[in-house]
Amino acid sequence: MSRALASICPFCGEEHERTTAVVKKGFAGAEPHMRPGDFTLCWFCGEFCVMGDSGMLRRPTHSEARQIRRDQCCVKLRDGWQTVQAAKARRH
After folding, report:
1. How many CB atoms lie within 10 A of CB 49?
2. Contact at 8 Å (CB) between 41 and 22?
3. Could you give the CA distance from residue 52 to residue 35 in angstroms, rounded to a whole number?
4. How confident is the model at residue 74 (pLDDT cuts 50, 70, 90)?
5. Is pLDDT at 1 greater than 50 in this prediction?
6. Which segments of 2-92 are extended strands (E)?
7. pLDDT tens column, 12-70
8. Where are the domains of the chain?
9. 7, 11, 25, 59: least buried by Cβ within 10 Å?
10. Hey, is 75 helix, strand or coil?
């Protein structure tokens, strides 16, 4: 069973029912629960957030933002998000 987390996106303010960390290729096992420093993508606005020490989401630091831009998992995840958003726009 997955635990539910209430978190707020620091970019758009949308509440998330659950938070899942971005994981590397080859991950096997249960859905990863976020730890401080892990990245996640807000499905509402498409911005990457970081789990802070308090357990709440925060904006990435400049260093973390640079790391996100260079991380292929993050690049592919955002590309997928943009593809879904474009498909939704075409339907409306």
Report:
1. 26
2. yes
3. 8
4. very high
5. no
6. 7-8, 15-16, 39-41, 48-51, 57-58
7. 999 876 666 676 655 556 666 778 898 889 989 999 999 899 888 999 999 999 999 99
8. 7-91
9. 25
10. helix
